[in-house]
Amino acid sequence: MIRRLLPLALALALSACGFHLRSALTLPPDLGPVRIASADPYSPLADDLAQALERAGAQGATEDDANAAVLDLISERWGDSPISVDQFGRAQEFTLRYAVVFELRRVDGTALVPRQAIELSRDYVASPTNAIGTEGEREILQRELRREMTASVLRRIDAVLVRGAAGAAAGDAAPTR
């Protein structure tokens, strides 16, 4: 009897907790084409963001297109710092940090998403005596952090756009004096 009720109780608890999948990023229809500007012309993050924005329904724009919103990647920085050392003073563990500063501007230059900074980090072990797999692990972490950074930037854009649309709708519904 209890074995039959337990799955039912768990299903009810999960549905009652408010869990729901995150919806896809939706851009406002008046945004128009989006151009990604980066200080690094070969930035893998810029390429990843361009693909993600196209999947979200944005039209890509070239550098020459003056009638395009601009997602400006102002700064991209990578850094390693040791977090532990062995008895000989050699670094054993490191923190890999990835920081990006960005903003999204409309065609007229007004900030749709104000300048924001995002920093992600991961810790990894790098044995100083056996460095064969260390670079491979670091490259894997870099790809993972770049993928997470792309998702983080899109979530920030979505949060500002949804909050802005909700605020505008609430402002429209407010009584006027």
From TrEMBL:
Keywords of the record: Cell outer membrane, Lipoprotein, Membrane, Palmitate, Signal
MF annotations from Gene Ontology: lipopolysaccharide binding
Membrane protein topology class: Lipid-anchor
One Gene Ontology biological process: lipopolysaccharide transport
InterPro entries per record: LPS_assembly_LptE
GO cellular component: cell outer membrane; transporter complex
Keyword DNA damage annotated: no
Primary location group: membrane
Domain of life: Bacteria
Region forming the signal peptide: 1-24
UniProt subcellular location: Cell outer membrane
Keyword Lipoprotein: yes
Chain's role: Together with LptD, is involved in the assembly of lipopolysaccharide (LPS) at the surface of the outer membrane. Required for the proper assembly of LptD. Binds LPS and may serve as the LPS recognition site at the outer membrane.
Family from the record: Belongs to the LptE lipoprotein family.
Record protein name field: LPS-assembly lipoprotein LptE
Organism lineage: Bacteria, Pseudomonadati, Pseudomonadota, Gammaproteobacteria, Lysobacterales
